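Problem 12. The chain below contains 166 residues. Write out its predicted structure in token notation.
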Amino acid sequence: MRQSLIQWVGIAWTILYAALVVWLYAAAPQSIAEVRTQARVAAGTYEVDRARFDAGRELFLREQYAAARAEWERADPARRDARTQFYVAYSFYRQGWGRVYSDDALFKQGLEAVDLAIDLSSASPLTVEDAELKMHTAAELKAELERGLERTADDFNPLKVFRERK
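Solution.
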């Protein structure tokens, strides 16, 4: 009886160890912090760091967009929060927007971030209630980013310099 129990415990440990190795191989974490983050995601206990998110929002309001994105990256390292990804996309829009022309590279990154935000909020349309923003839904932001990437005759309109940034 005791020998059989030891064998079953050994088999169970072997299976658990093999599952850990397979998970580490599939997740391919680059650091111990990533292992912890991915374990929290897998366990369903992942949450955004509110203090870092708020710090990023303050930087965003001061028009320090790259610094704001760095804070949001630390607040949401797994990129699992739709609201955070919306703000990341909005920061790419604001940084890439220009009176004469828009930065296509930044707009493309913003489009990727807003697509991720839309995917993460697939259960219901993403709406962000923030008085400081002029666009409150991911669909509005996506449309504005796509419009900025299009090449049209309106791009040569000299009155374009009077348009307002959203």
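Discussion. Residues 2-43 form one domain. Students who got a different answer should revisit the alignment rule from Section 12.3.
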